[in-house]
Amino acid sequence: MIIYFSGTGNSGYVAHKIQSVTNDQLISLQRVFRSGQNKGKTYHSEQPFVFVCPTYAWRIPRIVENFILNNNFTGDMRVYFLLTCGSEVGNAVHYVKKLCEKKGFDFMGFEAFIMPENYAALFDCPTKQEAKDILLRAKPEIENIATLINEQRSLKEHKARTKFLSHINGFFYAICVRTKPFTVTSRCISCGKCAERCPLQTIKMQGEPKRPKWGKQCTHCMACICGCPTGAIEYGKHTEEKPRYFLGDQYLIGENK
């Protein structure tokens, strides 16, 4: 069973590539989160579990970790973790192993793939051509890992290059993950796609004409700002006149089959 979370499509792309080789069941956590059924469920798999998600401040996203902690997993308890990142995953593997111990998973390996940067709130996203080049470089690496997972082989040990970075995680959530800086400009066409994509359903379309309003809950997945078809959403002044990166809706929700 492949369980993935994706905000702009990177991790969804990886999950779909893995599924195309293993033909395993695919579960979109964005769909799960939006349904509100994210606690107390049992997920059963006759093949190893594969978790795919982005890197948030050099660890797996808290909402993904909480999902794993708050649900039950049965069947084949072997597990792989695949993370996407803009450049570095810090010591995320250390925290993944601790999570596996808590849940009784048999850790089979960890891999990180460098994908186009999407965290527009702090970093610059690539141009369309730059993003295309990055995806082309990542594709053979993803396909190689997919083959190893399909053969149910252990992945080579991941060596953390910058372990100290993962200690920043708490600071990131306390200081950076906020909704107040999100604003919408006159380019908004009231399509509601930002609200439709928000995994925590914190965005509501209000007023006349309808415009997005952000609540307090947010995981900074960047689905709203990067997926806006007219580039109408800004995050403070940092994102003004800068490229956004969005790979596609098919990699966010997908089909839970």
**What would the average pLDDT be, to the nearest integer?**
94
Count all strands and give the number: 11
Shape: globular
The helix/strand order is EHEHEEHEEHEHHEHEEHE
Q: Provide the CATH topology of the largest domain.
A: Rossmann fold
Strand and helix layout:
Elements (H helix, E strand, L loop, with lengths): L1 E3 L5 H13 L3 E3 H7 L6 E4 L3 E6 L7 H8 L2 E4 L2 E8 L6 H12 L2 E9 L13 H23 L18 H8 L5 E3 L8 H5 L5 E4 L4 E4 L8 H5 L5 E3 L22
Parallel strand pairs: 1-2, 1-4, 3-5, 4-6, 6-7
Antiparallel strand pairs: 8-11, 9-10
What does this protein structure show overall?
The chain has 257 residues and is α/β, with parallel strands linked by helices. The chain has helices at 10-22, 29-35, 62-69, 92-103, 128-150, 169-176, 193-197, 223-227, and strands at 2-4, 26-28, 42-45, 49-54, 72-75, 78-85, 106-114, 182-184, 203-206, 211-214, 233-235.
Search tags:
globular; Rossmann fold; Alpha-Beta Plaits; two-stranded parallel ribbon; 2 domains
Concise summary:
With 257 residues, this protein is of the alpha/beta class. The protein has 8 helices and 11 strands.
